[in-house]
Design brief:
Elements: H1 5-19, E1 59-64, E2 67-74, E3 79-83, E4 85-92, E5 95-102, H2 111-119, H3 132-141, H4 147-165, H5 169-172, E6 185-187, H6 192-202, E7 209-212, H7 218-226, E8 233-236, H8 244-255, E9 259-263, H9 271-280, E10 285-287, H10 297-300, E11 306-309, H11 311-314, H12 317-329, E12 333-336, H13 343-350, E13 358-359, E14 372-373, E15 376-378, E16 381-383, E17 393-394
Parallel strand pairs: 6-7, 7-8, 8-9, 9-10, 10-11, 11-12, 12-13
Antiparallel strand pairs: 1-4, 2-3, 4-5, 14-17, 15-16
């Protein structure tokens, strides 16, 4: 039976994923002529299906998109009402993959740096979107940083390939969507009145809350929340505590007030103090700012009980998936987090959620101008969409 091109790509891609290999991978050699943007008058007809060639190339598009927060968001070191972002699209063979870069202040990246990086990404040199390892190795080679820009390309590629396969990535990876955990919902630092109002808005929709701490008002934050809900709490100090003895005292107090984990209690360069604190803490300690990419996972052993993986830090789903497996192998717990993002990047991260211990995937819930419909919630538990790719549709 004669196969059309789209059917062949789907079958070939499924076989490649099953074998752990990509078929037809490769870039044009430098000596080859430039890619022709329009089909030749009489394209050669191969005797059997082969990898995409000639005009069949990926087209990368991107544009800035500023995220508007529903409330002023305050952590121990800054406040903001917006977050800069860049939306990415990759077209190929009638499919479109969506991706996103989100740049909160501490990442040190901007719309200008992301768009400058994306202008350097030339995907037309690759004949086959299924060659994710080759393509992302090339993207990674373009600079030592730019993690958010790389994540945007990676997410869009995964969305594209998943759509071509006709399957969501949690199924491609073999995860059970029923094992997706509850997500925390974040309460930022604010006055007691505002904290109480925010807590009342969300307490009946979630099973666990995340509270930003790291200031002199930590106890006031927790007691204010405790005045309106008994939900379990996770706290994130965002490096805001500087004395290890004071940090340990705070953790014991927090444990007695229903806190179940502590995230990044001390600055990232305080290795000896982090190890000391982790050894004595009655609560599990997770590294966030200390764990950016896969190279930091091994260093987390002994400093933390678990790590917080975020696509914008590590460069996308490809690296995040590897970090989950490595952390598991090292005996570390895993939290899956996000920045302030649309449902595009949050739903992409959620594809990994059945494989982790904790999820902090609420970035899309904090904004008022989401561009996508994606991951859902049922009584605080993540509900993964049964759509191909990363599972989003543009709205």
């Amino acid at each position: 039976m004669k196969q059309n091109r789209r059917e062949f790509l789907k079958v070939a891609g499924l076989a490649a994923v099953g074998a752990g290999l990509a078929v037809g991978c490769g870039r044009r050699r430098p000596e080859e002529p430039p890619v022709v943007e329009t089909p030749p008058e009489e394209p050669p007809v191969p005797a059997e299906p082969v990898k995409p060639s000639g005009p069949h190339r990926m087209v990368l598009r991107f544009y800035p998109y500023e995220l508007q927060l529903r409330h002023t968001f305050t952590v121990s070191s800054y406040s903001r009402t917006t977050t800069p972002g860049v939306q990415v699209e990759i077209d190929y063979e009638g499919f479109t993959g969506y991706g996103e870069a989100s740049m909160p202040p501490y990442l040190g990246q901007s719309v200008e740096s992301v768009t400058a990086f994306l202008h350097r990404v030339h995907l037309r040199q690759f004949a086959d979107p299924f060659c994710l390892e080759d393509i992302m190795a090339y993207v990674d080679s373009l600079s030592p940083g730019d993690s958010a820009a790389k994540a945007a390309v990676d997410i869009a590629l995964h969305d594209l390939v998943g759509k071509m396969l006709g399957a969501p990535w949690y199924r491609i990876w073999g995860y059970n969507p029923g094992k997706a955990p509850s997500t925390t919902f974040t309460i930022g630092i604010d006055t007691p009145e505002v904290v109480k109002e925010k807590t009342l808005e969300c307490a009946d929709k979630f099973n666990i809350l995340k509270v930003k701490v790291g200031t002199d008002a930590d106890e006031e934050m927790i007691t204010t929340i405790r005045s309106v809900t008994e939900l379990p709490l996770a706290v994130d100090a965002n490096q805001g505590w500087t004395d290890r003895f004071l940090a340990l005292d705070k953790i014991y107090w927090l444990r007695d007030h229903g806190v179940v984990l502590v995230e990044q209690p001390l600055p990232v360069d305080r290795y000896d103090d982090l190890a000391w604190l982790r050894e004595r803490s009655p609560l599990p300690i997770f590294g966030d700012e200390s764990v950016q990419g896969i190279e930091d996972v091994n260093r987390a052993v002994g400093l933390f009980d678990g790590i917080n993986i975020k696509l914008m830090k590590c460069g996308g789903l490809r690296n995040a998936h590897k970090m989950v497996d490595l952390a598991r192998g090292l005996g570390l717990k895993v939290m899956l987090g996000c920045m302030t993002e649309t449902s595009c990047a949050v739903t992409a991260a959620a594809q990994l959620s059945p494989a982790v211990d904790f999820a902090d995937l609420d970035g899309n819930l904090l904004i008022s101008n989401d561009l996508f419909d994606g991951v859902g919630l049922s009584h605080g538990k993540l509900v993964l969409p049964d759509r191909p790719g990363i599972g989003v549709v543009k709205i």
